[in-house]
Design goal:
There is one protein chain. The protein is an alpha+beta fold. It is built from 8 helices and 5 strands, in the order βααβαααββαααβ. The protein has helices spanning 19-31, 33-39, 49-70, 75-81, 92-95, 118-130, 133-144, 151-174; strands spanning 4-10, 42-46, 98-99, 113-116, 178-184. Helix 3 crosses helix 7 and helix 7 (133-144) crosses helix 8 (151-174).
Length: 185
């Protein structure tokens, strides 16, 4: 079975907050995915997007380790620990954004979708630009390598996804675009 997380950069002004319209828009984008990928306005991750999200979640461990090393926990730091997901940029590249609600007349077979607004896209791009792949891999890699996987091959797959997402989000942020996300199964 083929299953993909499809990401499409789009100007916020071109988006309708209508699930039926957006499903049709994303389906057309998926049909044109090779051309849109080549143009730098689309990306996709096969079956392992949840693992890519878990890979980025290792940034929380790195941040906690950095905070512990400096041991400068203040009231502001404690308040930041209870901050929203938007304050946790490692959550943005894969699952970040707000759900696009189905309307009453929407086709229930249409997949769930998320929209990450331009500000969130910029946060995701900044996170991806500054995070160290090697440091994330050192924290999360062993947990992500499945049984029977070759570790070097798995590392390369995650490195490829990371590089692709870095470029995609950097271009989308530079254009001031939002990102629509949908899972095709």
């Amino acid at each position: 079975m083929s299953i993909h997380l499809h990401l499409r950069a789009v100007a916020e002004s071109e988006i309708r907050d209508d699930h039926t319209w957006l499903a049709a828009f994303m389906w057309k984008a998926w049909e044109n995915h090779p051309d849109e990928y080549a143009a730098g306005i689309a990306d996709s991750i096969n079956k392992v997007w949840s693992s890519v999200d878990a890979f980025y979640a290792a940034a929380e461990v790195l941040e906690a380790d950095a905070d512990a090393a400096t041991d400068t926990d203040t009231a502001a730091d404690t308040a930041a620990d209870t901050a929203t997901d938007a304050d946790k940029p490692w959550m943005l590249p894969i699952y970040g954004g707000r759900p696009v609600a189905h309307s009453r007349d929407a086709d229930p077979s249409n997949p769930p979708m998320m929209f990450l607004e331009p500000g969130g896209v910029s946060q995701a791009a900044n996170f991806l630009a500054r995070v160290s792949f090697d440091e994330l891999w050192n924290v999360a890699g062993a947990k992500l390598v499945g049984r029977g996987w070759d570790e070097a091959q798995a590392r390369q797959e995650f490195l490829d996804h990371h590089g692709s997402l870095q470029g995609f989000y950097a271009r989308a942020a530079a254009a001031g675009h939002g990102v629509v996300k949908v899972v095709w199964a």
